[in-house]
């Protein structure tokens, strides 16, 4: 992975009664995202203390947020975006991160 990747960290507070429905929707969109040319990786996590709080950690090979947004205007994303207000407790909390380094276990 490159330190020049575009990295997003997104917090999502899902309505308790919609968690299963949201997980199906987010899994479907991640599967579709993974077919994009500029997609690098995505990790989905659930908070250990709050079962309705999830985070997405996405890496993309894009030169800027603006270019990313232009390229992501696709029907499958629009359908997911349209459903979010009924699935989430409040708007997503996205952040753009600047990669500084990455370490993995050494044997």
TrEMBL record:
Coiled coil: none
Signal peptide: none
Domain ABM: 6-96
Name of a matching Pfam family: ABM
Gene Ontology MF term list: catalytic activity
InterPro entries cross-referenced by the UniProt entry: ABM_dom, AI-2_Isomerase_LsrG, Dimeric_a/b-barrel
Protein name (Swiss-Prot/TrEMBL): ABM domain-containing protein
Native species: Marilutibacter maris
Origin organism lineage: Bacteria, Pseudomonadati, Pseudomonadota, Gammaproteobacteria, Lysobacterales
